[in-house]
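Changelog-linked ticket: adenosine monophosphate example.
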Amino acid sequence: MSSKPLPVLRGASDSPRASAGGTASPRAALPILPGATLGILGGGQLGRMFTVAARTLGYKVMVLDPDPASPAGQMADVHLQAGYTDEAALDRLAQSCAAVTTEFENVPAASLIALAEHCRVAPGAGAVAIAQDRSHEKSWLAQHGFATAPFALVYSEGDLDAALAEVGTPALLKVARFGYDGKGQARVETRDSARAALREFGGQPCVLEAYVKLDGEVSVVLARNDAGECALFPVAENRHVDGILDVSLVPARVSASIVQQAQDLARAVADALGYVGVMAVEFFLVEGRLLINEIAPRPHNSGHYTLDACVTDQFEQQVRVLAGLPPGDTRLLSPVAMVNILGDRWQNGGPHWAALLAHPNVKLHLYGKETARPGRKMGHFNVLDADAAAALKLAEALRDAL
Ligand code: AMP
């Protein structure tokens, strides 16, 4: 038990106008060295890959996730099977860990605030609170001068007409919270379809966003430390199918100027947030301009290529920044294509792993999920090849043959 009780878990600052507070709480003596225990909120695949990276470096890992079969829990030294606001579990995490991070943005910001009273927490609650709510995220981006697709906030049906007038159609109505991978989104063409979509979402707060014609999508994963130093990974070119990432390709087939702009913008977002940790910025490429789509306060699916193609991968980077170590080298060692493996592939008897593993330049990562459901991310593979086009060609052929 702790000597000091955790504060009551309420009242997280979720206002985009409040200081972003991305900064880690500097409680632990830095750097935190191997042998110490690191904690993570969330036990999905991102937490699993963080856990593997941390244990490889000699840290112990404690995972908090209510799911008994959690992918990260399988790999951790300790799996606390409890909810994200469970005070006893948060207390144990705070007492056991030198530092705590998160693998998903929907962790209650109040839990991060409570933990930060006792141990180092990175990223901070303020940045997570912004990223976990599309309305806060979009407002924060606009207030800080970052270009996004035109949007309007919809708090109730009464806001719809003005929002449609401002944004126009076609548009996408997106729930402000808990949407992911295209879920909680509806394309709207008319007033009636917008109304129907809002009702379908139970009238919860939404963002109405202009449906823009995409020339492409790119993303940048970066790590920013307490001193404000930023290490950027190479820009990934991303292709989505039904709102879910299908393939990432690196180097991205965009101009050097777009690469530079994407990296500069990602760094500027991290700086403005005062962010500490690993984060991703997703961009739309529209008529030669980059618009920011989303910020993820954690490693990102489009950064999985780093696992096999960079000197340091995004999960080791997460460990390094959390521990107050210098960020690792982000250099790309080989062109790479990353392909997501979704649960759909299990519909007809399961994937043909042998064909995939027959290739010496293909690296398979499975997440240890017991149940395959359509759209569920079960794993991914990276294809390393002489150039991006060759990697993409083999990746697509292997994906289709799976
Ligand atoms: P999101 O969950 O908001 O990142 O959306 C998932 C994917 O849907 C994006 O990566 C895009 O491919 C597509 N998408 C989302 N918003 C828009 C938009 N405003 N215009 C065009 N396509 C979009």
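Closing comment: Example verified and attached. Residues 149, 172, 174, 182, 209-212, 214, 217, 240, 243, 293-294 surround adenosine monophosphate (CB under 6 Å). The domain at 216-401 is CATH 3.30.470.20 (D-amino Acid Aminotransferase; Chain A, domain 1).
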